[in-house]
Amino acid sequence: MGEVIVVTSGKGGVGKTTTTANVGTGLAKLDKKVVLIDTDIGLRNLDVVLGLENRIVYNLVDVIEGNCRIKQALIKDKRYPNLYLLPSAQTRDKSAVTPEEMKLLCEQLKGEFDYIIMDCPAGIEQGFKNAIAGADRALVVTTPEVSAVRDADRIIGLLEANEMKKTELIVNRLRIDMVNRGDMMSSDDVVEILAIDLIGIVPDDEKIVVSTNNGEPLVGDESLAGQAYMNICRRIVGEDVPFLDLNAKKGFFARLFKKN
Amino acid sequence: MSIIDFFKKKPSSGNNAKSRLQLALVSDRTGCSPELMEKIKNDIIEVLKKYVEIDPNGLDINLTQTRSDDGVGSVPALYANIPIKEIRRHER
Fold first, then answer.
1. How many CB atoms lie within 10 A of CB A112?
2. Beta strand B60-67 with A166-174: parallel, antiparallel or unpaired?
3. Max Cα separation, chain B?
4. Closest approach of chain A CAs to the CA of B71, in angstroms?
5. Which end of chain A has fewer CB atoms within 10 angstroms, the N or the C?
């Protein structure tokens, strides 16, 4: 029986879609059968981040409305035999789908896949409610900024109110140089404020931009972000993986000045 | 505590962000500003004073979140712990 994970944040632009793409691809690399669902109806994005934008025939709304069978709408990623995408509709809006319909869809997919990962839209309205409806587990993505953390706190409250079984935090785009000189909240600071379990720290990395440009998730490569995403995947499947030493690359002196 | 902490004691923008956030979240989580909370607190004290003598130092009044009766979602609840010194026997 598969697990349904929703990737959410409240605030836009903190890296939900990038996280969904990398976590999904990473789990597929770990030999799990994975389907990614873009629930941001009207603002389709996950397909381009994954490099699958040219292969869309049917979408999430087509499946919900019964215009096609689920299997017809799933796009198989040729690079990873276990990875599938259910794209969002570009010409409709959030009201095209209800939480009950999403729940039903998740139940149907659970039999077929190990992980069903939902990319949630920003905000706390209908789209958010749709995305979390069928989820067993939530990954809350935030950056170490006041606005993003505040929105994450609100989202965590709403997830609790909706009785989410498991909610874990990803601190994204951390700049260790700024943390070291005291100009950015550390992941410890963010965890202390939000008071939920941390499942990953992803450093700010130019390679993310390059990977998105090319439509190729970098999870599992040698870059720090690639390693961080792979570690998140391994924690999701239940492995106990230590957090990356983000200062490691800076050499001996940087280590001396290590703060966390 | 590392070497960098030793040399750098001036307030940093990171710490400023953290403390501002912590304050903002107190009122966010309860949906109630610190000023409003203070007013509620003072009014409760005024009413109680008519009937009982309370210990103002041991007073603890706060808004928290609690599960609603129908089990769906959470609702704000007023939590008050008010130590009573003496109940006034003579009603006027």
1. 14
2. unpaired
3. 67
4. 9
5. N
Between B66 and A183, the higher pLDDT residue: A183
> Chain A neighbours among B 45-74 (CB < 8 Å)?
65, 72-74
Is residue B13 within 8 A of residue A183, CB to CB? The reply is: yes
The pLDDT value given to residue B29: 80
Closest CA to A235 of A188, A192, A200: A200
CA distances from A258 to A245, A248, A252, B11 (A): 9, 9, 10, 19
Question: ipTM score here?
Answer: 0.83
CB A218 within 8 A of CB A208: yes
pLDDT at A255: 52
Residue-level length of chain A: 260
Q: Residue A45 above 60 pLDDT?
A: yes
> Hey, are the CB atoms on A182 and B15 less than 8 Å from each other?
yes
Name which of A139, A146, A144, A137 is nearest A177 in CA terms. Answer: A144
**Overall average pLDDT of the A49-53 stretch:** 97
Q: Return the percentage of chain A with pLDDT > 90, whole number.
A: 93
Please give the Cα distance from A118 to A37 (Å, whole number): 5
Query: So what CATH class is A3-256?
Result: alpha beta
- Residue A170 pairs in a beta bridge with A141, A200
Q: What are B46-89's pLDDT values in tens digits?
A: 898 888 888 878 888 777 666 667 765 556 677 788 888 888 77
Task: Tell me the chain B residues in contact with residue A153 when contact means C-beta distances shorter than 8 Å.
Answer: 25, 28-29
Question: How crowded is the C-beta side of A29, counted as CA atoms within 13 Å?
Answer: 19
DSSP per-residue codes, A83-103:
EEEEPPPSSS-GGGS-HHHHH
What's the pLDDT band for A260 if we cut at 50, 70, 90? Answer: very low
Domain assignments of chain B as residue spans, ordered by start: 32-92
